[in-house]
Amino acid sequence: MADALTVDIVAPDHVMWSGSASRVIAPSVEGEIGLLANHEPILSILKAGTIRVTSDNEKHEFPVTGGFVSFDHNTITIVADPVVPDED
Fold this sequence. Notes:
Layout (H helix, E strand, L loop, with lengths): L4 E6 L4 E7 L1 E6 L2 E5 L6 E5 L2 E7 L2 E15 L2 E8 L6
Parallel strand pairs: 1-8
Antiparallel strand pairs: 1-2, 3-4, 3-6, 5-7, 6-7, 7-8
């Protein structure tokens, strides 16, 4: 994958997803952020929503309630609070 992004999405107690991707979309408090290779560096707070990762021909979605995203040198680190399903 040319100009691949290195992505790590972690929760406080486990790794949610880690790998290479071509695009990541995250729900920032300032609006959705779309990250592609060679994007300018950012650090942003996440709001409740869904992180969407495009990797090769696969798409992954991670519902979150908050966290933050950091992007620098084609490396994305997302520390997120995942949505926890209700236990009945």
